[in-house]
Amino acid sequence: MHTQTDGSALATNVAPQFDDAEQQARSAVLGMWVFLITEVLLIGTLFATFAVYRYRYAHEFEEASLELDVVLGTINTFVLLTSSFTVALGVYAAKHGKQKAIVANLVITLALGVVFLCVKGIEYYAKFHHHLVPGPEYHFPGTASPVGHQTELFFTFYFLMTGIHALHVIVGMAVLAWVLKLALARRFSPEYHTPVEVGGLYWHFVDIVWIWLFPILYLINRH
Q: What pLDDT, in 10s, does the model give residues 151-176?
């Protein structure tokens, strides 16, 4: 059984520039969508640039892709898809005033975010260990073959794109941690749950970006 929020308590959640809570909620969601569109422009530019070089150096990019650990990539894909489900459950719980469910699902989502970063850290460590990090120490197996040095360009894209994505994961976790703090203080109700919904939107964006990154980086030479 959840606690209902009275009108006076609800009014304290409405900023003075808004007429009511509904207008504030719509504005917050719209603002997040606008922000995500700007993020799409950044990520989209990287994807487009990658596609150009992928077409130009198809053989080199395919050979370099084989050096990525598709098992770890698959695990991280499963982890993020699960986290999208749990954050959606958290939003649903907030809309229905289920305080314990909000907290539980946010905690699980944050834990899955930590798992994702740990797995990505294992991948990065392997790349450093095998000298596949672009720079003076870079060495690709069989560089003397027709594969050539353009494989280093692939790994430049790999670290740039997955690094930016990992940064977004960290930012998303910080946002959800803040939302969790508010949830623990029982600040949400069926009438007011905008931070949960907005935080959930950002987390879904992070997951969608990975859904695109996984196949173009890990699966381009696997059938």
A: 999 999 999 999 999 999 999 999 99
Alpha helices (H) along 96-222: 99-129, 151-184, 194-218
Residues 75, 119 contacting (CB under 8 angstroms): yes
Q: Which CATH number is correct for 17-218, 1.20.120.80, 1.25.10.10, 3.40.50.1440, 3.10.20.600? A: 1.20.120.80
pTM of the model: 0.85
CA distance 113 to 111: 5
Question: 219: exposed, middle or buried (C-beta count within 10 Å: 0-12, 13-18, 19+)?
Answer: middle
Retrieve residue 174's tokens. 């910080």
What are the extents of the domains in the chain? 17-218
Contacts of 52 (CB under 8 A, 6+ apart): none
Q: Which residues contact 161 (CB under 8 A, 6 or more apart)?
A: 46, 50, 213, 217
CB within 8 Å of 108: residues ≥ 6 apart: 83, 86
Under 8 Å between Cβ of 217 and 161: yes
Q: Which of helix, strand or coil describes residue 191?
A: coil
CB of 160 closer than 8 Å to CB of 43 = no
Q: For position 4, what pLDDT does the model report?
A: 41
Alpha-carbon gap, residue 40 to 168, rounded angstroms: 12
Q: ∠57-61-62 over CA atoms, to 5°?
A: 120
The alpha carbon of 21 is separated from its chain's Cα centroid by a whole number of angstroms, namely 28
